[in-house]
From TrEMBL:
The chain crosses the membrane at residues 12-31, 43-65, 77-93, 98-116. This is Branched-chain amino acid transport. Pfam families: AzlD (PF05437). It comes from the Bacteria. The keyword Repressor does not apply. Keywords: Membrane, Transmembrane, Transmembrane helix. InterPro entries: Brnchd-chn_aa_trnsp_AzlD.
């Protein structure tokens, strides 16, 4: 049987992860497109899906800010919270342009790190 450890090439784990990740998620995306086309924009089901998606995204962002991993762990919590808050404010002021909020928050994080170093 062919398994994860079958091949010894350096690229095999990356290919395995890419294919397995694609297979695991792509079918749900296609099913979502097929089912989503039949739903009305203001239906209860679609409202629930949007609420769950928004809650999951908020949880991921909160986890990244409050319990980061990697290099972000070295950034003070106050700087992370300030950058997120000001980035959100910039997002709203710029007419809900996502790239403005992200760029603002990143600039504050990077600038804050240079000031603290």
């Amino acid at each position: 049987m062919i398994g994860y450890e079958t091949y010894d090439a350096w690229w095999w784990p990356y290919l395995f992860i890419a294919v397995a990740g694609w297979l695991a998620t792509d079918i749900w995306r296609w099913l979502g497109v097929l089912v989503g086309n039949r739903l009305k924009q203001d239906s209860a089901a679609l409202t629930w899906v949007r609420a769950v998606a928004t809650a999951l995204l908020a949880a991921v962002i909160a986890k990244l800010i409050l319990y980061p991993t990697g290099e972000l762990r070295n950034v003070p919590v106050a700087l992370r919270l300030t950058a997120a808050g000001i980035g959100f404010g910039a997002f709203l002021l710029a007419g809900k342009r996502i790239w403005v909020g992200i760029a603002t928050a990143l600039a504050l994080l990077i600038g804050g790190q240079f000031l603290l170093a």
